[in-house]
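Sequence in, structure out.
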Amino acid sequence: MPLDHMNVLSLVDDEFEDLELWYPVYRLREEGVNVVFAGPEKGKKHIGKYGVPAVADLSYDEARSADFDGLLVPGGWAPDKIRRYPKVLQLVREMDEAGKPIGQICHAGWVLISAKILEGRKVTSTPGIRDDMENAGAEWLDEPVVVDGNLISARRPPDLPPYGKAFVDALKSGQRQ
């Protein structure tokens, strides 16, 4: 079933991991999903770690969780910047409370940690933030993709194919009829 009536918000800031941002975005767009980028400032171009740009369609402050069916948080060094915005943490909590799919890969777990939504949840991430995830109350698993309710997490770029599939499957299972 096509997902062309769905909207997903992807957070962006400087030094995102290029593949971890763009692979899921293109995978969703292949399914017809409208993916919108939100960053600190609307219209600002953000450059990934390897030079690929992404332009914010909205500022974090303009983004409303009610307008989106899911959320993607890329890895790289951007999550350490993204998690410093109270509005982002509010968006993450609202989407989690609504049971909307939240995808995070690699260092993106930092954003979920700062939003304080990991207590008692199963997740994965880059092994480099395993301790951070566990200290936030999560059970960390060394698996390519971990799905726990609405949370879809992956370790790093080699895990992108199953991560993309799991996120699409989560959107499909939550489609409004």
